[in-house]
Prior knowledge:
The protein is mainly alpha-helical. The protein contains 6 helices and no strands. It has helices spanning about 5-10, 10-20, 30-40, 60-70, 90-95, 100-110. It is flat, with a radius of gyration of 20 Å. The mean pLDDT is about 75.
Amino acid sequence: MVMTDMAKVLPAEVLKRAVDEAALNELAHPEDISSAVLFLLSNAARAITGEVLRVDAGNISKVRRRIMTAACHAPHDVDREPGKGEGPYQADRAANSHRPDIADRDRSRE
């Protein structure tokens, strides 16, 4: 989340949660976004191609860390639980079966 005029009118509890989820314990500001854009437009970034530059005060990384921690405590066989049908990753496997790199990776995990 970026602290824009629109974000400023959100309920206080929504803003607090967003700040708490950011690694820097603050929200990014529009100036942070414009600084990143100016850098990418400069010669200093001339060799950068095809990258995603997240300017979010670490919000995504902190949320991702929480998800990964939860995944580490999940049962080891997250693909299938007996009698429960498809697990969360089986649908992804089917969707990516046309991609040899992903299909090979998935087969190597079995």
